[in-house]
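hiii, so i know i said id send this last week but things got crazy w the move. better late than never?? heres the sequnce for the chain we talked about at the cafe, plus the structure i predicted for it. fair warning i was half asleep when i ran it
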Amino acid sequence: MAAGLMRHLAGDRVQVHSAGTRPGTALNELSVASLDELGIDLADEKPKPIDPDLLPTIDVVVTLGREARVEPVPGVRIINWDTDEPSERGIDGIERMRLVRDDIHDHVRHLLTELTTSEPSDPTKGHRQ
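okay and structure toks below
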């Protein structure tokens, strides 16, 4: 969801890679539907694990949720977004996913502003996560 939102907002200003710490076998249908409401198409996406060869070339890795963990990599900033969980308040289904999407959208907008208004810490790195 975060990668789709970042691609949508950033266009070609930021290079985005998407991977999971424990990828499933399919995308969450409600997540896909909530992004589709914003005109974001995930038809070409599929769950995949983090590529250990790509990881050291990334400037920023974002993990989502309390359980996602990525081992530290020298020179790579790892941040975690502990996102809203509406189900804890009894909100489920597409309404839940819209709230999650909107929370992640706020995080993505802030990160995009940070990435596009400051210089990369290592000019030899050409990727942004």
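btw The helical segments are 2-10, 29-36, 93-117. thought thatd interest u
miss u guys!!
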